[in-house]
Write a structure and sequence with these properties.
- Helix 7 crosses helix 8, helix 14 packs across helix 16 (353-367) and helix 19 packs across helix 20 (417-424).
- It is flat and about 85 Å long.
- It has 21 helices and 16 strands.
- It is of the alpha/beta class.
- The longest helix has 16 residues, at 315-330.
- The strands form five sheets. It has a five-stranded antiparallel sheet with strand order 2-1-5-4-3. It has a five-stranded parallel sheet with strand order 9-10-13-8-14. A two-stranded antiparallel sheet has the order 6-7.
């Protein structure tokens, strides 16, 4: 059946499922179809005549505009993932395609862009990835799975929880997970970094103050404990809390009350406390820097969070997670990471743990315009030879080098053979043969 030539183009545009809009040379919206109205929550009447960036407020409106790129290059952009802000203020993932609008004389007079709601696709992707996600925590290593199994039971109680782990292991993520899985999930989650403020400011921040408590206290100010009523207070870097405040925190834990600065009546503390530290609190108790009674009050339930070096098999999953996140935030279309760059990250110790990995990938996104992250996109210190190879040298026969590499990889992976096989891209049989050999000269 031939296409009806007299069918108005507007009727065609109105019938397609994707949102479609056009702009003139001055970036004013000139057309806005029905699907665009449905996806954005903005009517055509509201959109037409306004600047496109005022309508969409997208992740690429601040300098990476797709239509602008097309107008400058004369080319097209296809299926670029970004997000826009809907009329109700919610963030919406979309995939856009754009091209310049050209008149019969070949002059660029504006641009046209289509966009597709990716909400359902992302929801499906999350279902697929759910096996490797717990709340906002990414991983499938045995070390994490052990925590995942007991976290719901811990969360359902009112017990105080102490999270122990190196810097960058995601202590706040675990604290939020405990809150979200608890009966207090509808209440506020309030985080306080005990090492970021001097003692006098930390006290007023935690407990609040009454008018007249000090010179500038003209009105009452509620503290974090009061603002977290019905919810959870997360005390990060609890090991840095000054001694006089430790006494007041002990009262909150024992009596469930506190007194604001300048106050005379106790205030009920209807909160659950989750604390975290990268310090050895037992040693600080022995050194007289942390109260023993407070330590035992905090130490009702203790969760030791594994360092990234103890769960290297999670690194590829974390990389996928951060690549997706940065693509959405920065409006890029980085497809992933190359095998060479992945091996560099797998072989480095990453003492800064997940935070260091995230920062390295954020740096890579600055240098990687699209495609796959390559070794040259990573920070320079990650491009350097790993100490295992630098210290031992690539000397000896090929068999000796292979055997050394296998042993060092096994050590890095804490004796986990499957993780070692993944890092070296070899089979279990090959790893077993390499470990069984004793290279001559060693």
């Amino acid at each position: 059946m031939p296409f009806p030539r007299d069918l108005p183009l507007e009727d065609v545009f109105a019938s397609i499922a994707d949102g479609l809009f056009t702009v003139d040379a001055n970036w004013h919206v000139t057309y806005f179809n029905e699907s665009a109205e449905r996806i954005t929550g903005i009517t055509a009447k509201e959109a037409i005549g306004r600047k496109c960036w005022d309508v969409f407020r997208s992740s690429i409106c601040d300098g990476h505009c797709a239509i602008s790129e097309c107008r400058e290059s004369g080319g097209r952009i296809t299926n670029k993932p970004i997000f826009i802000i809907r009329a109700d203020g919610s963030k919406l993932p979309v995939s856009i395609s754009a091209s310049p609008l050209v008149n019969s004389d070949g002059e660029v007079i504006g641009g046209v862009e289509t966009f597709r709601d990716l909400t359902e696709i992302q929801a499906m992707r999350k279902k697929v990835q759910k096996l490797y996600h717990f709340e906002d925590i990414v991983g499938r290593s045995p070390a994490l799975e052990k925590i995942f199994r007991i976290l719901p039971q811990i969360s359902s109680s009112e017990a105080t929880v102490l999270l122990l782990g190196q810097s960058g292991t995601g202590k706040e993520l675990f604290a939020r997970a405990i809150h979200n899985l608890s009966p207090r999930k509808e209440g506020p989650f309030v985080a306080v970094n005990c090492g970021a403020l001097p003692g006098n400011l930390l006290e007023s921040e935690l407990f609040g103050y009454k008018a007249g408590a000090f010179t500038d206290a003209r009105t009452d100010k509620p503290g974090r404990f009061e603002r977290a009523a019905g919810g959870t207070v997360f005390l990060d870097e609890i090991g840095e809390m000054p001694g006089d405040l430790q006494v007041k925190l002990l009262r909150v834990l024992q009596e469930k009350t506190f007194e604001p600065l300048g106050g005379v009546e106790p205030v009920k503390a209807d909160v659950r406390i989750v604390a975290a530290t990268n310090r050895d609190l037992k040693q600080r108790v022995a050194d007289g820097l942390f109260r023993e009674d407070l330590f035992y009050r905090l130490n009702v339930v203790t969760l030791g969070l594994p360092a990234l070096a103890e769960r290297r098999e999670d690194i590829p999953l974390l990389i996928d997670h951060f690549v997706s996140e940065f693509n959405a935030i920065q409006g890029k279309n980085v497809e992933g990471i190359s095998e060479e760059a992945l091996q560099l990250l797998m072989r480095h110790d990453l003492p800064g743990n997940v935070r260091e990995l995230e920062n390295a990938l954020e740096y890579a996104f600055i240098l990687c315009p699209s495609g796959f992250i390559q070794p040259e996109h990573l920070p320079e210190y990650l491009q350097a030879p790993h100490p295992d190879t630098a210290d031992n040298g690539l000397f000896g026969t090929m068999d000796q080098i292979k055997c050394r590499a296998a042993r060092h990889a096994l050590k890095r992976n804490n004796g986990k053979k499957m993780a070692t096989c993944r890092e070296l891209s070899i089979s279990k049989d090959t790893l077993r043969r390499l470990l069984a050999r004793t290279p001559m000269g060693e």
